Design the sequence.
């Protein structure tokens, strides 16, 4: 077995492990949902643990695949970045002239 093939198998095994972990986490959440509905502290602790586990798994996935997922940003959106309409019209004219 070549080194490249072994590396691919190890990466696949890690991704499968992360997928199984996500499935187990979903089952745990389903089981614990009724209990945490009565305890706000338990719900907060569970949410924090899930957040940390997800971040670890995301980082492992990124290391294996080389794909970085964009972080969801909370807050208010900024102003549109587009410039004045005249600027856009000038760009379109320049492109049409090149063709």
Sequence:
């Amino acid at each position: 077995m070549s080194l490249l093939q072994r590396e691919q198998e190890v990466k696949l095994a890690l991704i499968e492990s992360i997928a199984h972990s996500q499935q187990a986490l979903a089952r745990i959440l389903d089981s614990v949902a009724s209990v945490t509905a009565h305890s706000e502290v338990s719900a907060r602790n569970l949410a924090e643990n899930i957040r940390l586990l997800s971040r670890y798994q995301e980082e492992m996935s990124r290391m294996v695949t080389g794909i970085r997922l964009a972080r969801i940003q909370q807050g208010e959106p900024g102003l549109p970045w587009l410039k004045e309409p005249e600027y856009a019209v000038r760009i379109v004219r320049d492109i049409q002239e090149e063709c």
The chain has three helices and no strands. The chain has a mean pLDDT of 76. The first helix runs from residue 3 to 36.
